[in-house]
Amino acid sequence: MAALNIGTGASSHSAYDLRDHHETAERSHTLAVIVDNEAGVLARVIGLFSGRGYNIDSLTVAEIDHAGHRSRITVVTRGTEAVIEQIRAQLSRIVPVHQVTDLTTEAVAVERELALFKVQGKGDARIEALRLAEIFRANVVDSTLESFVFEITGAPEKIDAFADLMRPLGLIDVARTGVAALARGV
Predict the structure, then answer these.
(1) 71, 61 in Cβ contact below 8 A?
(2) Helix/strand/coil for 159
(3) Which CATH superfamily hosts domain 27-102?
(4) CA-based diameter of the chain, in Å?
(5) What residues contact 8, with CB distance under 8 A and at least 6 apart?
(6) Is residue 77 within 8 Å of 49, Cβ to Cβ?
(7) What per-residue confidence (pLDDT) applies to 174?
(8) Is the pLDDT of residue 98 over 80?
(9) Which positions fall inside the ACT domain (predicted)?
(10) Looking at per-residue confidence, does 19 or 179 come out higher?
(11) Does 18 score more than 50 pLDDT?
(12) Is the pLDDT of residue 2 over 50?
């Protein structure tokens, strides 16, 4: 009699393993969505994500054409290629959406983010925070005797790395703008 493996292992022979083993892994995608700048458009775009259980890692919105009443929504989300293609197709069907571009796969993109970090510290921790800020090219935009507020811009990975280094030195608050991205070239 054969033993039945009912553990949490990744056996591809189990009748109960419903995962699609041919599907590619999830990864982060940056989508640029050009929309009419009118009330309710952002709510419709966000509703698409929340209604289908898709997570948004980052979201930025700004008007890009005042005369043409157009805005750019930059969304960073995670999913398999099939999920991202489904999101793109569903976004394209929303009436005020003019263009959806996956900057992760369709173009080489420049991605930047701005963040503010409040770091509390005295003595050696304060000196180390200043030293790391200099290395990361972060600017001191506010200072008291017990804390600093640093401003840093760069790729999201740079922002994450700075946060990781500031945590043990007394990081007490963070504000991030979200990703802004553009395709390179013409």
Answers:
(1) yes
(2) helix
(3) ACT domain (3.30.70.260)
(4) 75
(5) none
(6) yes
(7) 97
(8) yes
(9) 30-102
(10) 179
(11) no
(12) no
